[in-house]
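Worked example 4.2. Below are the chains of a multi-component assembly; read each line carefully before continuing.
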Amino acid sequence: MPVTQITLLPGYAPDVRNRLVDRVSQAVRSVIDSPEAGTTTFVNEAATYRRDGRVFAQGRAAHPVASERVQAYLAAMENRDLPLAQTFLASDFVMCFPGGVRMQSLDELVQWARGRYRFVRKTTEAWDESWQGDVTVVHCHGTLAGEWLDGTPFEGIRYIDRFELLAGLIRRQDVWNDLGEHRARQAAAQ
Amino acid sequence: MPVTQITLLPGYAPDVRNRLVDRVSQAVRSVIDSPEAGTTTFVNEAATYRRDGRVFAQGRAAHPVASERVQAYLAAMENRDLPLAQTFLASDFVMCFPGGVRMQSLDELVQWARGRYRFVRKTTEAWDESWQGDVTVVHCHGTLAGEWLDGTPFEGIRYIDRFELLAGLIRRQDVWNDLGEHRARQAAAQ
Amino acid sequence: MPVTQITLLPGYAPDVRNRLVDRVSQAVRSVIDSPEAGTTTFVNEAATYRRDGRVFAQGRAAHPVASERVQAYLAAMENRDLPLAQTFLASDFVMCFPGGVRMQSLDELVQWARGRYRFVRKTTEAWDESWQGDVTVVHCHGTLAGEWLDGTPFEGIRYIDRFELLAGLIRRQDVWNDLGEHRARQAAAQ
Amino acid sequence: MPVTQITLLPGYAPDVRNRLVDRVSQAVRSVIDSPEAGTTTFVNEAATYRRDGRVFAQGRAAHPVASERVQAYLAAMENRDLPLAQTFLASDFVMCFPGGVRMQSLDELVQWARGRYRFVRKTTEAWDESWQGDVTVVHCHGTLAGEWLDGTPFEGIRYIDRFELLAGLIRRQDVWNDLGEHRARQAAAQ
Amino acid sequence: MPVTQITLLPGYAPDVRNRLVDRVSQAVRSVIDSPEAGTTTFVNEAATYRRDGRVFAQGRAAHPVASERVQAYLAAMENRDLPLAQTFLASDFVMCFPGGVRMQSLDELVQWARGRYRFVRKTTEAWDESWQGDVTVVHCHGTLAGEWLDGTPFEGIRYIDRFELLAGLIRRQDVWNDLGEHRARQAAAQ
Amino acid sequence: MPVTQITLLPGYAPDVRNRLVDRVSQAVRSVIDSPEAGTTTFVNEAATYRRDGRVFAQGRAAHPVASERVQAYLAAMENRDLPLAQTFLASDFVMCFPGGVRMQSLDELVQWARGRYRFVRKTTEAWDESWQGDVTVVHCHGTLAGEWLDGTPFEGIRYIDRFELLAGLIRRQDVWNDLGEHRARQAAAQ
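Applying the procedure described above to all six chains together yields the following structure tokens:
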């Protein structure tokens, strides 16, 4: 145990059903200390389904994978493809960067970053998705590499990002990293 | 749709079953764009259950709520109750603090913190749990308040913590915050 | 086939569950030409149930049996217990009697009947319930016996009543009978 | 709740399955005071089904919709298409008309009606189906319009018909209406 | 897979439910090459059950374990407790012993055996039950030990018995063994 | 009751599913004294299935019918087609014949049989399968006909065979028959 049966309307792609049984199994195992071997989850397709006085001809759409959306957004940012990056953002998007810098547009962000480093690239150690109903929260953390404004390279500087997604769009990004610690250490060393 | 039926052995406390239907519903809704009104999840109790050639007399234990474990650990740390805090940690516990400082014992941590501030308290804005099978990852973020070594108070400084829990014990803690940014700004201001 | 499984929260009385499996079996057999022997219906009690973002502690109330409500109302009317009869009626109750006479209160009805017969009693041949969602329609038909205003007895005069019930209360009553035919025949015979 | 799962053999047309989930939902809601939003009913198709020692290759036939059968019968009667009307009747068909007139053949009925009116047409306000296992009872009520034998038109005269159907055929029809009341009133007025 | 859910009325003893999930799992695994680890079977208790137009208040009785019945019968025979042994037999019991000797009563059997050996005891290597619907067939095989009529002991002589049980009673017993081979060998040796 | 639902991955042939519902029904009825009319078993096909941390693309293979395998093996032996007969045997095949003669190869058996009869043919009265998890035990019994070494024919001599099959291969055969009894009788008669 537990044995979990999910009844869906037909028409979902196999990878959506796979994602569903994976996530439901993980949710079950987060509550019950059941080994993988004892955790059974399957999808059943209903031929006809009625709720709320209506017969539904097909199921609701599947969401994109939130962490893949974030990954694509971050790649677009690293490539400075702001129009593409913008497509991942909700209209009420806000972000907060180290030092508590709050911004609302990617242009602002690019402007602000120009005062800090020439460029930066992320190496991500882990993606963590938190499923919270309408909202999915995605965290990624790892290290930053890039060049300071004076051209000095840096690497291995820890970072973490937190994203809130609603209906597949990022509506909030929060960023923490050790760049400040690093600069302080450099300053102290000089 | 979707309608999800979870079959358990009898004996779980109501709050465990409630947590189970909540989390499974959230996992389902993270994949399918189904409104709450159309998301049905229920628990069925099996009278007898057999798998792997054995009849099971009772279900596997329920896990504690990972974020509550982390919260209790952080409270113990703020209260400097290291023996209590230690009970939440796995034997192979590791932590990494701003600047990439890696430590393995709470004593080390206390020692290290003494060189940075007199005390610090967290105000948490959000707890995010990520259910990943054997491991649950907990993030909390918010702001720090406390006193610098010279007695100057500070507050509103952003932080985020990431915890990995296995079998109810914290085996890894990663911490990021803006203390470095803050000190740098202070230094620049002087 | 068909095999029908109804999942309820615990707490319903056995007679409610029996009524439920009876009616659901009848609904199934009204669509599929399945013999009773091949029609299986059972009730399963869920330990925990969540829909619309909430865990429900207990099931919704059971309705009274609509035809039993009507029967009690008709008995109260035959016994001239208007206060009791009134308790079965919705606040927007309307009725329509032979000749298209529309009334809204039991007092009106009693007044109107005084101009037609001394009293009347129903012998009911059949009760038919029609389950229509929020509304249940009840028909009863059979024969009337009683006394004309001049004291002449009558009996065996066909009648049918139609009742609409909402939330257990009668909101509409329509009456047809052969009293008019009968009087016409009597008149012709004289 | 309630969540109802109906398991059928494959091969039923979508409209049959839709009718099934509609009716079962209505039967459920006639017993439990559950809102439409909380009433879930779905059809599951079994790949293989065995009962009574036999594996069934396909499900039992679906019944026609009883009220549609009655409607077609009444239309044939209004159009004086007796051969067509006859096809809707069981071999032991009986009918009872106002005044308690019992007949067994449509010819009798036509003969009898010729002594009462030139023609009559029904305007139906409501169809009510009562699912009773082998038998389905259909009531329809509304008003009659037509011409008396002397050519005088009439309209708005209340009627109700009750039909018993077995295996898709009408085996009993009972008719009530206010024609008698109407003629009595006319006679009184003259 | 496969996941098998058996719905019963409440009231069965745990050992009956355990036997049920064991046997059903074995039946499943006799058809599908599924390992024990992947074979899940559980019992669900229905709160209310209706079939064939009736609501059943409790489930049908459980059968005794057929091989335990046979074992008790054989023990009674070895103990020469014929009245007890008789209680395990159906009224139309028949048996067939080596050489095709057909008998119908235990007295006949005892009489016949007296002409062959003083006594015999069975050591059973395996019990095999074959579930065939109304009938369960039990085979046991192993070795015989005992004394010939002249008092010479014997042992290790192979035997097999086949029993047919209906409604918990043995209606047929067929016996094969190597006593004939043994005697022939002895005769040849002399 | 009982109602048994078996959930499989799609892709099994209809005859496999039929065999499955037959055997599971028989296993159920071996425990519960339920008539065939009240024993319902059906197969449900899951669209997606996950256990042990993996999503399974297709179900495990179906076993051949054990008694059909034995029948084919016996036919090959009667036809002296040893290479074909060998294909039904596990590599660790052992057999035991009347008198306790243990052999491991078909050649040995043929050699041994040559000292007993010219040929023998089986007429089988019943096949009994016993489903025991990994192993299925098959018994067949009936009569032997053939010719003695001196050409004298015989017939109607009782026999029973017991076979153990693992993974579709026979790993053990035990044989009992009345040939010894018969020869003893013949010897006595001479």
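Take a moment to check your reading of the output against the notes. Chain F has a mean pLDDT of 95. The interface with chain B takes residues 53, 133 of chain F (CB under 8 Å).
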